[in-house]
Design goal:
The strands form 2 sheets. Strands 3-4-5-6-7-8-9-10 form an 8-stranded parallel β-sheet. Strands 1-2 form a two-stranded antiparallel ribbon. With about 280 residues, the protein is an alpha/beta fold. The chain is built from 11 helices and 10 strands. The protein is globular. It has one domain (about 5-185, about 220-230): NADP-dependent oxidoreductase domain (TIM Barrel), CATH 3.20.20. The two termini are about 30 Å apart. Helix content is about 40%, strand content about 15%. Helix 6 (about 165-170) links the parallel strand 8 and strand 9.
Length: about 280
């Protein structure tokens, strides 16, 4: 496993398991499967309604807690410190853990500035090892960093070979904030697994198109959290560290970038002017 050293010195695995849309009743089993095949990073959120399953899997694991990296995201639409504290408290109770490695603001709604300052307080108290944001673009990211005492360690956004977020990576560099990709396989849309470029590159290394797509992100410094409930896919998605894409490979994969997202969730392509990046 490769690790990203975040701007506060914390090491985060480059590959984790996302559990979006996994029912609560299945989550513990899925996370336990992931841990058994080598995953050490798990990403959940209050709005996924499966934090308890993640926490139960972590607590039942024989893996030392300090070797695991747990991310969650507070409910959005908090406008006050008190609402933010209640949202954090809810997530911590659901997880049942002494601390969270990374706490994110899920969306830039409510009052992001108040939410951020509240997370800063709790970070300084040791409740979180790091704090960051998700789905923040240039018209909302300054609401966090302007006047912040603690800089976000990551910004988690939709990112994949069809929507490579190169301008976002450049935008975040001066802040030393890492980009983390949700839906790094584009939810399987646009026939990504049958993409001729990815298939051809994969044949050179004995890898699948999905592995090539994920490796491309890692080699560009992007943290990834592919989601699957199938153990064999978990193994495939983490088996990325025995090959390196060549410069020519990277170049032809860059040509797959459409500059637009595919999931339909708000992004710079839908809500914001990409030229502002």
């Amino acid at each position: 496993m490769d690790y990203k050293v975040l701007n506060n010195g914390l090491k985060m695995p480059m590959v984790g398991l996302g559990v979006y849309n996994i029912p609560e009743r299945e989550t513990q089993r899925v996370v336990e499967d992931a841990l058994s095949v080598g995953y050490r990073s798990i990403d959940t959120a209050a709005m996924y309604y499966n934090e308890k399953g993640v926490g139960d899997a972590v607590k039942n694991s024989a893996i030392p807690r300090d070797e695991l990296f747990v991310t969650t995201k507070i409910c959005d639409s908090c406008y006050t410190r008190e609402e933010t504290l209640r949202s954090v408290d809810h997530s911590m109770k659901q997880l049942g853990l002494d601390y969270v490695d990374l706490m994110l603001i899920h969306w830039p709604v409510g009052n992001p500035t108040v939410m951020w300052h509240t997370l800063e307080e709790l970070y300084e108290q040791g409740m979180f090892k790091a704090i960051g944001v998700s789905n923040f673009y240039p018209n909302t990211f300054p609401k966090i960093v302007d006047g912040a005492k603690v800089m976000p360690v990551v910004n988690q956004c939709e990112t994949h070979v069809l929507y490579q977020q190169r301008k976002m990576i450049e935008y975040l560099q001066p802040y030393n904030v890492a980009l983390e990709a949700w839906s790094p396989l584009a939810e399987g849309r646009n026939s990504i697994f049958k993409n001729k470029t990815l298939v051809a590159v994969g044949e050179k290394y004995g890898k699948t198109s999905a592995q090539v797509a994920l490796k491309f992100l890692i080699q560009n410094g992007v943290i990834i959290i592919p989601k699957t409930t199938h153990k064999e896919r978990m193994i495939e998605n983490i088996d990325l560290f025995d090959f390196t894409l060549s410069d020519d490979d990277l170049h032809i994969i860059r040509l797959l970038d459409t500059g637009r997202n595919v999931t339909g969730w708000p992004s710079d392509a839908l809500r914001y002017n990409p030229e502002s990046l």
